[in-house]
Amino acid sequence: MADLATTAPLIRATGLRKSFGPTEALRGIDLDIDRGEVVAVMGPSGSGKSTLIHCLAGVLTPDAGDVTINGTELGRLDADARARLRLKEIGFVFQFGQLLPDLTAVDNVALPLLMGGASRRAARAESYAWLERLGLGDQGDKFPGQMSGGQAQRVAIARALATRPTVLFADEPTGSLDSVAAESVLETMLDVVREARTTVLLITHDPRTAAYADREVIVRDGRLSGSALVGRS
């Protein structure tokens, strides 16, 4: 018999509903995401895709429904336990990187490792290894303002992956880059996560970015309106 831990969806959402005042952002979403899958989440502005991602990551608590990540039901956790789960299981990459400007690249990447209890020496060694893996071995001592946009975004990706998360949430990770830098950053990120079998949820409005995913789900008016395999051959 197959191991249930490897055959069950890594992320399972059932009946998710979330309102902000009178506005229903999510209207009963069911979604399964498999281990190692790269899923592009698309939809127009205000469709609910960001609210969905925040509920899946445990940043927001849904008004109804359940989210399970790697066998843990988020609704059973208090705020501190959800924060610990995010630190251990989840990585985040945002459109503008959100690196700390007063820290070098290596110290930005080391930060979540230090928060997880690693020694400074171990955290910096791991940080340098991730920078090297993402083609930034010579950028460790530079500050974000001294790097190009593409380089800074690779640092943000290294920081998100340094803790070896089970799932990576990437919110428009190349939205602030030109097309050449965006393609380079995406290809580098996906090469690394696919090698590590990291599950990725990629929020994007760009069909060219979504084409890098294994599957695309579309959110409209708080509901899933479609799902299709879209990966490149």
TrEMBL record:
Residues 11-233 form the ABC transporter domain. Keywords: ATP-binding, Lipoprotein, Nucleotide-binding, Transport. Pfam families: ABC_tran (PF00005). Transmembrane segments: none annotated. GO terms for molecular function: ATP binding. This is Lipoprotein-releasing system ATP-binding protein LolD. It comes from Demequina sediminis. The gene is lolD.
